[in-house]
Design goal:
Elements (H helix, E strand, L loop, with lengths): L4 E5 L7 E4 L2 E5 H6 L4 H23 L8 H20 L5 H7 L3 H15 L13 H7 L16 H16 L3 H10 L3 H7 L3 E2 L2 E2 L1
Parallel strand pairs: 1-3
Antiparallel strand pairs: 2-3, 4-5
Helix pairs in contact: 2-3, 3-7, 5-6, 7-8
């Protein structure tokens, strides 16, 4: 695979990064706002380079959100964070992980309920603002500036990361597991393989 071109721009203060096949665009004004020191900016740039590169390859693989839109979005973002973590050796968002780890069981239950609620949607649907489906989706994805009360933003990224961590750990062929992260062909099978389990049994 050929690495994508990287474009660093001053944008509209709305996006830190986005990707299409062969290219990624990073919003410098957002990344600088997230990074109070030069060292933090370097760390942020490394993460975004890796994360958005994964998305450019996912686009090349033809992945869509046509099935299980919330679950697929969680797996797509989680895969990008998981591979970025492999590349950089750093937790993508340490504060978010610290908040979520002791709450993983309750978060898992809420995520499963929200996935079931949004399962009938497709990537062409636009659920009515304020509807249960819209709230369920927005609880996990696309809420960087407006997370649920008391939650860190974009918690779906962390949940997806955790699913892929378990999936990867159990996979006998690690290269095949990484390829699965770029394609996300069977979201429900991936979820089953990466299911959260309490110590001593299932959730």
């Amino acid at each position: 695979m050929k690495l994508p071109q990287v474009y660093i721009v001053f944008g509209a203060n709305t996006s830190g990064g986005t990707a299409k096949p062969g290219a990624q665009v990073l919003g410098l004004e957002v990344l600088c706002r997230m990074s109070p020191t030069p060292d933090k900016l370097r760390q942020t740039l490394r993460h975004f380079f890796a994360h958005e590169t994964v998305h450019s390859f996912q686009q090349d693989a033809g992945m869509t959100l046509a099935r299980d839109p919330l679950l697929t979005a969680i797996l797509v973002e989680g895969a990008a964070d998981f591979i970025a973590q492999l590349v950089t050796g750093e937790e993508p968002d340490a504060a978010r992980a610290a908040w979520a780890t002791p709450r993983e069981a309750e978060l898992w239950r809420q995520m499963q309920a929200d996935i079931a609620l949004t399962r009938t949607l497709t990537d062409k649907d636009d659920p009515e603002e304020g509807s249960p489906e819209a709230k369920a989706y927005a609880r996990w994805i696309g809420n960087y500036s407006t997370p649920p009360a008391g939650w860190p933003p974009e918690l779906g990224y962390w949940m997806g990361l955790r699913i892929w961590q378990r999936y990867y750990a159990a996979a006998p062929d690690k290269h095949a597991a990484l390829r699965a992260m770029l394609a996300v062909r069977d979201p429900r099978a991936i979820l089953a393989a990466g299911t959260y389990k309490r110590r001593g049994g299932s959730l």
